Amino acid sequence: MQTKEHQRLILASSSPRRQELIQSFGLPYIIRVSDADETVEQKITPSELVELLSLRKASTVREMLEVQEQHGIIIGSDTVVVYNEEILGKPVDEQDAFRMLKGLQGDVHQVYSGVACVDAATGQQVISHSVTHVRMKSMTDEQILRYIATGEPKDKAGSYAIQGIGATIISGIEGDYFTVVGLPLSLLSDLLLTFDIQVL
Ligand SMILES: Cc1cn([C@H]2C[C@H](O)[C@@H](COP(=O)(O)OP(=O)(O)OP(=O)(O)O)O2)c(=O)[nH]c1=O
C-alpha cells in the first residue's frame, strides 16, 4: 500500500455531481478542471467515445499539473445517453432538450459512462466504461416543457438528471445508478486497485 500522500485523487472534472461523488470515497482529493476539447471527428461507438473522452480529460489535466503537483491518480469521466443508435450529449438549447426528451420518453435507453485513471507521476493509465439501462416514463409535451422549465436538463447528457426532479420521470434502471449520475463508483473503485488504492 502506498502512503496517504500518494493515494490522493485528482478529479479532472467541472461537474458538481462528480465532485460530490468523489467525496464519498473519503480519500484525499483535489479538483483540476480540464479544458479538453470534446470534439471527435471519426465515427466511433458510444463505449469508445466515453473511454476516449475520459482519457482525454485526465491526460489534459496531467499536462496542466505543475511538477510539484505530479503525484496522485487523475480521474477523468464522460457520460452520454444512447437511444436508437443516436448518441445524445448535453442539449445545446431548450429545443434540443425537447427533441431529446420527446425521443426518450416511454422507452428504454442506455447511459454510458467512461472512467480513465492516469498516474500523474508515471503516466500509467487504465480506462473502462459502464452501461446502465434506463426506462423513462411516457410524458406529454406539456410535461416535457414543464421539466425543461425547471432548468435541470440544461447541462445533463440526454437532458435529464436522475438525481433530481428527473427521478420522477424514470420508472426503473438496470445497472449502476452512479453510471447514470456520471461517475460509476463501483467501476472506479475497481480501477483504483491497479494503483494499490483501496476505497474500502
Ligand atoms: C443522464 C444524466 C447525466 N448527468 C450529467 C453528468 C455529467 O455532468 C453530464 C454529462 O456531461 P459530461 O460531458 O460527461 O461532463 P461535464 O461536461 O458535465 O463535466 P466534465 O467534462 O468537466 O467532467 O450529464 C446527470 O447529472 N444526471 C443524469 O441523470
TrEMBL record:
The keyword Cytoplasm applies. The record marks 17, 79, 163 as: Important for substrate specificity. Its cofactor is a divalent metal cation. Its main location: cytoplasm. It holds the Pfam family Maf. Signal peptide: none annotated. Its EC number is 3.6.1.9. It is found in: Cytoplasm. SUPFAM superfamilies: ITPase-like. It comes from the Bacteria. InterPro entries: ITPase-like_fam, Maf-like. Keywords: Cytoplasm, Hydrolase, Nucleotide metabolism. This is dTTP/UTP pyrophosphatase. PANTHER family: BIFUNCTIONAL DTTP/UTP PYROPHOSPHATASE/METHYLTRANSFERASE PROTEIN-RELATED (PTHR43213), BIFUNCTIONAL DTTP_UTP PYROPHOSPHATASE_METHYLTRANSFERASE PROTEIN-RELATED (PTHR43213:SF5). The active site is at residue 78. It catalyses: UTP + H2O = UMP + diphosphate + H(+); dTTP + H2O = dTMP + diphosphate + H(+). The keyword Signal does not apply. GO terms for molecular function: nucleoside triphosphate diphosphatase activity. Nucleoside triphosphate pyrophosphatase that hydrolyzes dTTP and UTP. May have a dual role in cell division arrest and in preventing the incorporation of modified nucleotides into cellular nucleic acids. Belongs to the Maf family. YhdE subfamily. NCBIfam families: maf. Gene3D superfamilies: 3.90.950.10.
